């Protein structure tokens, strides 16, 4: 079960960072192809983002699945809203919609 402390931590991260990526590994060294793909897309968009390496925190890894109601990583939050994982991000990017979502979020 999601502890109140963990819930507060996640809520704080997603509200303090316009783009928050929960990934396996780091932006510099992703440790999973799905996380690497998402990092690559966000690098191409040129807006600042924050990442958290869920491989370093087992409690966060499990807690996020519950918090987001999503069973896998990466998990992408933009402007405090859960967007999805790798497949959804790729689809939004291919349709040209991700750049718009990001632009709207950062210009608020
Ligand atoms: N189709 C998924 C692919 C991601 C995926 O399957 N991730 C797996 C393997 S890296 C995962 O996070 N499993 C749960 C876990 O490792 O805790 C997406 O769109 O993000």
TrEMBL record:
Family matches, as Pfam families: Glutaredoxin
Keyword Iron: yes
Annotated Glutaredoxin domain residues: 19-83
InterPro entries: Glutaredoxin, GRX_PICOT-like, Monothiol_GRX, Monothiol_GRX-rel, Thioredoxin-like_sf
Key words, A-Z: 2Fe-2S, Iron, Iron-sulfur, Metal-binding, Redox-active center
Gene3D superfamilies per record: Glutaredoxin
Residue stretches spanning the membrane: none
PANTHER family: GLUTAREDOXIN FAMILY MEMBER, MONOTHIOL GLUTAREDOXIN-S14, CHLOROPLASTIC
NCBIfam families: Grx4 family monothiol glutaredoxin
Protein family per UniProt: Belongs to the glutaredoxin family. Monothiol subfamily.
Protein name per the record: Glutaredoxin
Gene: grxD
């Amino acid at each position: 079960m999601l502890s109140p402390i963990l819930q507060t931590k996640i809520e704080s991260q997603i509200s303090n960072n316009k783009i928050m990526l929960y990934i396996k590994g780091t932006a510099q060294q992703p440790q999973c192809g799905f996380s690497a793909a998402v990092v690559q897309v966000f690098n191409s968009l040129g807006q600042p983002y924050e990442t958290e390496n869920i491989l370093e925190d087992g409690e966060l890894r499990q807690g996020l699945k519950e918090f987001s109601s999503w069973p896998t990583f990466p998990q992408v939050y933009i402007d405090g809203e859960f967007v999805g994982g790798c497949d959804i991000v790729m689809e939004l990017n291919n349709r040209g919609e991700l750049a718009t979502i990001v632009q709207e979020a950062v210009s608020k």
